[in-house]
Every structure is written in structure tokens, then in C-alpha cells.
Write a structure and sequence with these properties.
Blueprint (H helix, E strand, L loop, with lengths): L2 H29 L10 H20 L8 H9 L8 H22 L10 H8 L8 H22 L9 H16 L9 H13 L15 H20 L1
Helix pairs in contact: 1-2, 1-4, 1-5, 2-7, 3-4, 3-9, 4-8, 6-7, 6-9, 8-9
């Protein structure tokens, strides 16, 4: 493997780590007891995730494509703008980055876990969950949200932006999805974003954490992959 590919793979690890550190970090700020941002609400979470994506893309974007999302990587490969030979390596790097990001959130809020008794709030800091558990409906929500994400990203490639502006545009896309489509499932729209921190939740020594809800974990993996594939197909028909 040449140095360029190794740099790109590392950038996916680093960028996804930053994405989860800042994204799950805002969830921790809102969810955990005695945080100065406790109970500040969904708008804060949506803006926090939008900025997390923006910063992560800035961090990773000069070293590689900054997918930071297995569904995006698969879609880019489907459209021919990314090598299939690197897909698995990118996904592994993204998942590992997400796990490390989850661990860093735990460290950043270390005293707050023990004083937070709400197991749902703790799990919700790491991973997504449905407002109403209905697997077919939850799947549809994740498919639609990821469809919008990937179609938006692919459509951006047809426009010219001022140098350095693209990550902000991507952040605006994430903010829009979070505000408009995030209510039903917490808008994972990214298999690594959910699976990696959920695994961290499973492994970390948080005495009050409860179950990691693996029975739901397939939805934020399968749904985004389907949504991304559909978006790639629509894009290829249009372009």
C-alpha cells in the first residue's frame, strides 16, 4: 500500500474520532447530570453535531476525501469516484475512530457518569435510539435521512465553492437533517457513528450505564447503507 493511501486511511480514523468526540460530546453536555449544558435541548444537539461534522471535515479533508461514514464511502465507490479496493479499510478506520472518539467523550465527562442515573441518557450520549420503537418505521427514517445526506454530498460535487467553504456547506446539510428528520431516531445516518460509540458504551466501566441495546443496533447500520445506495443510484441516473 502506498503512502498516499495510508494517509487517507489515517485521515478517516482521525476525522471520525473528532466527529464522535464533538458530536457525542454535545450529547454528553445535554444529557449528563451537573453538566453546565444539562437539558439545553435538541437545538443544541443539532447545532453541535453540525459543527462536529464541519470541524471533522476540516481536520480530515486535507489528507483525504473525509467520508467519515461507511455509507458515504460505499456510495462514492458506487458512483465511481472512489476505489472499491479501499472501501473495507476506510470502514475499519472509521469504526475504530468512532470507538476512540466515544472513549474520549467518557474521559472528558469522567465525573458525570456516576451522578447520572438515567441509563437511557447515558446510552443516548453514545448511540442513537428511537423515540418510538418500530423497526420498519425506524428503518425508513434512517433510509430517508441518509438518502438526503448522500444525495446532498453528491450534488455538492456539481457546484463550485470558495476554497475552504465546503465543510461549512456539509455542516449546514447535517443541521438541516437533524432539525427536520432527527426526531424519530436521533439521525444516525452513519453506521460508524452509531456502532463505534455503542461498542465503547458496552466496554467502558460506567457502573450506571445499563444495556447497550444491541437489539436496535442493526437499524442505524442497515438503514444508512440502503439510503446511501439509493441516493447513489438516483445521482447516477441524473448525472
Amino acid at each position: 500500500m502506498d503512502t498516499s493511501n495510508m494517509t487517507q486511511i489515517f485521515s478517516e480514523f482521525l476525522g471520525t474520532m473528532i466527529l464522535i468526540l464533538l458530536g457525542d460530546g454535545v450529547c454528553a453536555a445535554v444529557n449528563l447530570k451537573k453538566s453546565k449544558a444539562e437539558a439545553s435541548g435538541w437545538i443544541v444537539i443539532a447545532f453541535g453535531w453540525a459543527m462536529a461534522v464541519t470541524i471533522a471535515v476540516y481536520v480530515a479533508g486535507y489528507m483525504g476525501p473525509a467520508h467519515l461514514n461507511p455509507a458515504v464511502t460505499i456510495a462514492m465507490a458506487m458512483t465511481g469516484s472512489f476505489e472499491w479496493s479501499l472501501v473495507v479499510l476506510f470502514i475499519v478506520a472509521q469504526v475504530l475512530g468512532a470507538v476512540v472518539g466515544g472513549v474520549l467523550v467518557w474521559l472528558a465527562y469522567l465525573p458525570h457518569w456516576e451522578v447520572t442515573e438515567d441509563q437511557g441518557a447515558i446510552l443516548g450520549t453514545f448511540a442513537t435510539g428511537p423515540a418510538i420503537r418500530n423497526y420498519p418505521a425506524n428503518m425508513i427514517t434512517e433510509v430517508i435521512g441518509t438518502f438526503v445526506l448522500v444525495l446532498g454530498l453528491l450534488s455538492f460535487s456539481q457546484h463550485s465553492f470558495t476554497d475552504g467553504l465546503n465543510p461549512l456547506v456539509v455542516g449546514a446539510l447535517i443541521l438541516s437533517i437533524g432539525l427536520s428528520l432527527g426526531g424519530p431516531t436521533g439521525y444516525a445516518i452513519n453506521p460508524a457513528r452509531d456502532f463505534g460509540p455503542r461498542l465503547a458504551h458496552q466496554l467502558l466501566p460506567i457502573s450506571t450505564k445499563g444495556d447497550s441495546d444491541w437489539s436496535y443496533s442493526w437499524v442505524p447500520v442497515v438503514g444508512p447503507v440502503i439510503g446511501a445506495a439509493v441516493a447513489a443510484g438516483v445521482y447516477m441516473m441524473m448525472v
